[in-house]
TrEMBL record, chain A:
Pfam families: DUF1264. InterPro entries: OBAP-like. Belongs to the OBAP family. This is Oil body-associated protein 1A.
From TrEMBL, chain B:
Belongs to the OBAP family. This is Uncharacterized protein. Pfam families: DUF1264 (PF06884). PANTHER family: OIL BODY-ASSOCIATED PROTEIN 2A, PTHR31360.
Length: 247, 245
C-alpha cells in the first residue's frame, strides 16, 4: 500500500487500489442512467467548516458538508474531505434546531456542539454562494446544534477507514482554529473569514444561549471512542457479557 | 417538497414540521450556485438488509448509494428508503478481498462479507436488468463491508440518538437470515423475485480466502457496541485554556 499524505491536498492515487477499469466504469454508468437517486438529489447545500476530534483539539480537519433539509428542524449532511470528484466520504452530521436540542436527554446532549461561533466568526461558509443568500442560511444555522461522527481519519494518514467512529466537535471561540489551516482554506476558496464575520455581526445564536451541556470538551472532558464485545443477540441487559477492548 | 408529513395519517418519521416553501425556494437558489461535485459521484443504488451487530434480530432494509473511489474501494451513503424524504442512516465502506486481507485482525472483526446476500438475490440494484449487473455483482461478491449506522430508525428514533452502531450483513445461519416476509415486501416494491435472481447468480463465487475475522459473530456469537469514555481533552500549544470558555 502506498502512503498517503495528510491534509487537503489528497489525491485519489493515495488510496490503495487499482484505478477504475474502463469496463467497470461503463457498467456503472449504465446502472446510473437506469436508477433513480432521490435521496441524493435532495442534497441542496455545500457548507465548508472545521471539525476537531472530541478528545484532541490539535487535530483539526476541513470538512465539506453536503446537506439535505429533512424537516424544518432537521438537516442531514454527508461529510467529505474535499469538494472534489475524488473526495473521501469521511462522516455524517445531523443539525437540529434549538428546540429539538433542548428536548434531548442530558446524556445525549454531550455528543452535540453549537454552531453560533462558527457562523458568527465567519469560518463556516458556503463556497460559491453570494453573501446575501449565504447570510439567510447562516441566520438559522447560528441557532442550531450539530452531531458529527467521522469514520475515516485521513488527517492521520489512514489510507482506509479503520477503527471506531470518532465523535467530532466544533470551534467555540477565537484562538482555537489552526492558523495555517485557516489561511489555506481562505486562499483556496477565495474567502475572508474576517469579512464574513463583519457581515454576520448582527446574527444571533440560540435564543437561550449556548447550552452548557453541548460542547462537552469545554469542561475539559474529551470523549474518546471504545469498542466492547457483547453477545450478538440481545437477551437481557444483565446477561450481556462485556469484554472491553480498546481499538 | 414531497415528504411523509404530507401523507394523511402517516406516522411522522422525523421531528419537525415540513420545510416551508419559502425556505425551500431559497435553498433551491443556493443549489444552483454550488457544484456539489462529491455527491454527483454516486453511480449505483443497492437495496439489501443489515442487522445490528449487538442485536442481530433487529434487521433493517437499507438503500445504499455507492460511489467507486477506485477498483478496490467504494463508499456508500446509506438511507432508510429510496424516496425524497429518506433519512441518512449511515455510511458503508466496501473494499476488495485484497485490501481486506491486509487489515489487522482487530480491524477485520468490524467488517462483514457480501457473498451470501448477493448469491441469494437479497442484494439488488433496483431498475437495472440482472444481465447488466452480473459482472459488477461477481466483483462485489468478493468484497467486504464496514457499515456504521448513525440513526436507529427501526426503534422509532425521530432524530439520531446515541453512538453509532456497527452493522452486519445477512448470512445463511441464524440470526443472520432475513425473514421471508421482509424479502417478499421488498420484492413486491421493485417487481422482482429474489429467489429467481438467486438461481441466475448460482455461478457467483466468493473470495478464495475465507478464513478471516469478518462476520465475527458467526464464529463467536459476539457483536460489538461503540461507546465514548471521558478523557482529558488535548489542547494544542496554540489553544491555551483561556480559550476554553
Amino acid at each position: 500500500m502506498s502512503a498517503v499524505g495528510p491534509g487537503p491536498f489528497f489525491q485519489s492515487r493515495d488510496i490503495p487500489g487499482e484505478p477504475i477499469k474502463t469496463r467497470t466504469a461503463a457498467i456503472e454508468k449504465s446502472a446510473e442512467i437506469l436508477q433513480s437517486f432521490k435521496p441524493i438529489s435532495k442534497v441542496h447545500a455545500h457548507l465548508c467548516a472545521f471539525h476537531f476530534y472530541a478528545y484532541d483539539m490539535r487535530r483539526q480537519v476541513e470538512a465539506h458538508h453536503y446537506c439535505t433539509h429533512l424537516s424544518e428542524d432537521v438537516h442531514q449532511c454527508l461529510i467529505y474531505d474535499t469538494p472534489n470528484k475524488d473526495a473521501r466520504l469521511i462522516g455524517v452530521e445531523y443539525i437540529v434546531t434549538e428546540n429539538v436540542f433542548l428536548a434531548l436527554p442530558e446524556e445525549e446532549k454531550k455528543f452535540w456542539h453549537s454552531h453560533e461561533y462558527e457562523v458568527k466568526s465567519g469560518v463556516l461558509f458556503m463556497p460559491g454562494v453570494p453573501s446575501i443568500a449565504e447570510k439567510m442560511e447562516m441566520k438559522e444555522l447560528a441557532k442550531t446544534y450539530g452531531k458529527v461522527f467521522h469514520f475515516w481519519q485521513f488527517d492521520k494518514g489512514d489510507i482506509l477507514p479503520i477503527g471506531p467512529p470518532q465523535l467530532m466537535m466544533a470551534l467555540t471561540t477565537d484562538g482555537q482554529l489552526d492558523e495555517k489551516l485557516a489561511a489555506d482554506v481562505q486562499a483556496r476558496f477565495n474567502v475572508s473569514f474576517d469579512e464574513k464575520r463583519k457581515e454576520r455581526a448582527d446574527l444571533e445564536g440560540p435564543l437561550n444561549g449556548v447550552h452548557p451541556s453541548a460542547n462537552s470538551w469545554r469542561k475539559g472532558m474529551g470523549l474518546a471512542p471504545y469498542v466492547s464485545e457483547v453477545d450478538c443477540v440481545m437477551t437481557t441487559p444483565q446477561e450481556m457479557s462485556r469484554e472491553s477492548s480498546e481499538l | 417538497m414531497a415528504s411523509s408529513h404530507e401523507e394523511g395519517g402517516a406516522e411522522q418519521k422525523v421531528v419537525g414540521e415540513k420545510v416551508p416553501l419559502t425556505t425551500a425556494t431559497v435553498e433551491k437558489g443556493a443549489k444552483l450556485l454550488q457544484s456539489l461535485t462529491p455527491v454527483k459521484q454516486f453511480q449505483q443504488h443497492v437495496c439489501t438488509w443489515a442487522m445490528y451487530s449487538h442485536d442481530m434480530n433487529r434487521k433493517i432494509e437499507t438503500h445504499h448509494y455507492a460511489a467507486r473511489l477506485n477498483e478496490d474501494l467504494l463508499q456508500c451513503a446509506v438511507f432508510d428508503s429510496d424516496q425524497d424524504d429518506a433519512r441518512l442512516i449511515g455510511v458503508e465502506y466496501i473494499i476488495s478481498d485484497r485490501l481486506f486481507l491486509a487489515l489487522p485482525e482487530e480491524e477485520q472483526k468490524l467488517w462483514h462479507s457480501h457473498l451470501y446476500e448477493i448469491e441469494q438475490g437479497l442484494w439488488v440494484n433496483p431498475g437495472v436488468p440482472e444481465v447488466m449487473q452480473k459482472m459488477e455483482l461477481k466483483k462485489l461478491a468478493k468484497t467486504y463491508g464496514k457499515f456504521w449506522c448513525t440513526w436507529q430508525v427501526d426503534r422509532g428514533d425521530k432524530i439520531p440518538m446515541g453512538p453509532p452502531a456497527l452493522m452486519m450483513s445477512p448470512q445463511e445461519v441464524p440470526p443472520g437470515q432475513i425473514p421471508e416476509e421482509m424479502v417478499h415486501n421488498r420484492d413486491a416494491k421493485y417487481n422482482i423475485t429474489s429467489m429467481q435472481l438467486a438461481q441466475n447468480r448460482a455461478d457467483i463465487a466468493g473470495s478464495e480466502v475465507m478464513h478471516t475475522m469478518a462476520d465475527y459473530w458467526k464464529k463467536t456469537g459476539k457483536g460489538f457496541v461503540v461507546g465514548y469514555k471521558e478523557v482529558d481533552i488535548a489542547l494544542g500549544a496554540g489553544s491555551p485554556l483561556k480559550n476554553l470558555s
